[in-house]
Amino acid sequence: MLKERIENILNEQVEKEAYSSALYLAMASWCEKNGYAGIAEWMYAQSEEERMHMLKFIKYINERGGHAIVPALKQPPVNQQTVKAMFEDVLKHEQYISDSINQIVGLAIEERDFTTNSWIQWFVNEQIEEEASVSLILDKLNMLGANNMYLFDRDIMGLRANENSEGA
Length: 168
Ligand code: OFO
Description:
The protein is mostly helical. Helices cover 73% and strands 0% of the residues.
């Protein structure tokens, strides 16, 4: 049985994962509208991955005797300034998510919930991969400059780091 503080923080994470999924879906739509079909595909895949993350939290909370709550979400941004600025926002968002996963680890240890601590380690590792994958994309964008967006758009799917990992 989950302690209340653990159930609450896990439900907050359900909301964050659901928002991540909506955020990347909105980015996918903007990319598609603006002719970046390859980047849109990357964002759609990322959005789907975040939905899988959300489902993992929902199922874990219910499995441990809690009640997973499906949240209302705030509206993600509709428009982006540039592709590079968009990926900078993705990196910031993933760093924020890593921080919140670390807070769950901290609370699980504080509450001596070693089952949750063990379970959440998958996300600790996932966040390392996600931050690395977005940093790689930003490195490529910085090398290319604005002129070669066509090639970047064509090749971005080859930069997906964790396409084959579980739940990803
Ligand atoms: Fe981007 O890893 Fe979940 O949120």
